[in-house]
Amino acid sequence: MLREKIIIIEKALKKVLDYLEMLSDENFELIFPKAKWGMEQVQLLKNELKTQYPPEVYLKIENHLLLPAKLIANKYDNIITLKRKKLTAVGEEISSMQNRKKIVNYYR
């Protein structure tokens, strides 16, 4: 029973990582909710294990799942960093366009 649940959690974490790998601006609205739902399911299963097993057993499970969880956290961080850079670039472009517009209006 315990081993089966750990395998289910591992598969869910792998699926979330796969979703995050295929995430793009074009499919964000479709893929991101699936990744989020997967993480919610993982959390529910982990909470279930936490209540069913002693702390020392649960800690071993957590340690076993640490690597995939870190990979997902890093992927989330990379996505956020990339989005932040894109927003900054767009903001700078808008500011530049507004400045050019002011200069054109000034010369009129």
Q: Which SSEs are present, and which pair or pack?
A:
Elements: H1 2-22, H2 28-52, H3 55-64, H4 66-107
Helix pairs in contact: 1-2, 1-4
Provide the β-strand percentage band: under 5%
Give the termini separation: 78 Å
Shape: rod-shaped
Give the domain tally. Answer: 1
Gyration radius over CA = 22 Å
> What is the β-strand count?
0
**Mean pLDDT level:** 92
The chain-level structural class is mainly alpha
Q: Which series of helices and strands comes N to C? A: HHHH
Main sheet makeup: none
Number of helices: 4
> pLDDT below 50 for ≥5 consecutive residues: which ranges?
none
- The helix fraction, in percent, is over 70%
Structural account:
The chain is mainly alpha-helical and about 110 residues long. It has one domain (about 1-105). Helix content is about 90%, strand content about 0%.
Name the features:
single chain; 0% strand; mainly alpha; 108 residues
Summarize, please.
The chain has helices at 2-22, 28-52, 55-64, 66-107. With 108 residues, the protein is an all-alpha fold.
